[in-house]
Amino acid sequence: MSGHSKWSTIKRKKSAEDAKRGKIFTRIAKEVTLAAREGGGDESMNPKLALAVSKAKAANMPKDNIERAIKKGTGELEGGQLESFTYEGYGIDGVAFIVEVLTDNKNRALAEVKNAFNKNGGSLASNGAVSWQFEQKGYITITREGVDFDELFLVAAEAGAEDVVDEGDAILVFTPREAYGAVESTLRENGYKVEDGELRWFAQNETVLPVSKAMQNMRLLERLEDLDDVQSVSSNLEITEELALAYDE
């Protein structure tokens, strides 16, 4: 999971930058709305909503925004009719991308995703063209402060986690898709602070490219993630130490 670990570091850095300009509010508000629509507006009875609200608070989203997003999901306010879609595509040198979208306008979302690929040297692909190269897994970020890594490792492993990685400022827990909910709930029940948690697509085999071409793919990834309707983007580009350093500059 070393490559996934490097990517998680970049992902957290970008999330912090997005938070500064409010971009992250749009994404998290949709998560809150969808969670409330699927499981109701009571956090104590809806673990998915509890996590989404926790993420919203961690991003310093105003309380009124959170409550409005919940009410959209429960139908008390208009605007909760969101649909989820998954698009697949190719970047530079055939790097595979999976783009997950949550939108109230499919045509707009598709046009924006297609435009991002076309303007950054890539192209959309048909469903199934690249997804066979990926596996969906649970990805959970735990606040590192005050946590005994060995104890957390045992709790996570017993709940069904397949890997736990100490990142220094955070601990990453990876789970099989079917065990994600149980592991996330167990960690919360044992007092661990979950910063983030979601199902993500992870490449079974990653592609190594020269830094110049890898950076072109990173720019495509950034452009896709900047779209309001896009919730997450995954690729099979390997995040090498050299690429991580170049991206950080």
TrEMBL record:
Recorded GO MF terms: DNA binding
Top-level taxonomic group: Bacteria
Domain TACO1/YebC-like second and third: 83-237
UniProt subcellular location: Cytoplasm
Pfam name, any one: Transcrip_reg
All residue ranges annotated as the TACO1/YebC-like N-terminal domain in the record: 5-76
Keywords linked to the UniProt accession: Cytoplasm, DNA-binding, Transcription, Transcription regulation
Swiss-Prot/TrEMBL GO biological process terms: regulation of DNA-templated transcription
Gene Ontology CC entries for this record: cytosol
Keyword Transmembrane helix: no
Entry annotated with the keyword rRNA-binding: no
Recorded family membership: Belongs to the TACO1 family.
The protein's name: Probable transcriptional regulatory protein G4Y79_15550
Organism expressing this protein natively: Phototrophicus methaneseepsis
